[in-house]
Amino acid sequence: MSNVEHTLPELPYTYDGLEPYISRQIMELHHKKHHQTYVNALNAAEKAYASASTPRERIALQAALKFNGGGHINHSLFWTNLTPSATEKRGTGGVLRDGPLRNAIVERWGSLETFKKEFNTTTAGIQGSGWGWLGYSPTSHKLEIVTTANQDPLLTHVPIIGVDIWEHAFYLQYLNVKADYLNAIWHVINFDEAETRFRDATGSRL
């Protein structure tokens, strides 16, 4: 394994930059505490793995590597997945411009609003904690809505948009009403970043 330690990435906006849809309090706790914990635990697990002397010891570390590695991967993607809201005249969040991604979403779901509703319904249905994803399937060459449990990273698809549905992502602001959080987050989704990921995934052939 790499000897380079993982570090907490800086946010591309201020902690209050996503308000009123995601509060400063949530962003500070989520980034400084939760994501930092995954980074620290991943570094510790990789260090232990590198010094492990038996297959049994290495196998015992797999769960920690998967959980904390997934947490680091998912959250690093999540932060760039968000941007200040256009509705609040603070940025471009929530705006899906004309282009390949919009065309693919409309072709697949009929409209952006229909896509959002299906995404929210699927993601809200996750039992316990996990992530909702808009992913590009290299097999079907289509966009698909999928979920992963806990901190499992999305490996079957190229992640285009990911939404954290762990309670630490919304509870302080939305309590246990996942639907309100999911409706709100579209105001700060960075569709420009999603467009770039989609173009990269498809080789800009669409």
Strands of the widest sheet, in order across it, are 2-1-3
Which word captures the global form? globular
Question: Largest sheet at a glance?
Answer: 3 strands, antiparallel
The parts where pLDDT drops under 50 for at least 5 residues are none
Mean pLDDT score, rounded? 95
Total E-strand runs: 3
Distance between the termini: 37 Å
How would you spell out the order of helices and strands?
HHHHHEEEHHH
Estimated radius of gyration: 18 Å
Strand content: 5-15%
Total helices: the number is 8
The percentage helix is 40-55%
Structural class: mainly alpha
Write a structural description.
This protein has helices at 24-51, 55-60, 62-80, 100-109, 112-124, 171-174, 178-185, 191-202; strands at 130-136, 143-149, 158-164. It has eight helices and three strands. It is mainly alpha-helical and 206 residues long. 49% of the residues lie in helices and 10% in strands. The protein has a three-stranded antiparallel β-sheet, sandwiched between helices.
Give me the secondary-structure topology.
Blueprint: H1 24-51, H2 55-60, H3 62-80, H4 100-109, H5 112-124, E1 130-136, E2 143-149, E3 158-164, H6 171-174, H7 178-185, H8 191-202
Antiparallel strand pairs: 1-2, 1-3
Helix pairs in contact: 1-3, 5-7
Brief overview, please?
Helices cover 49% and strands 10% of the residues. The chain is mainly alpha-helical.
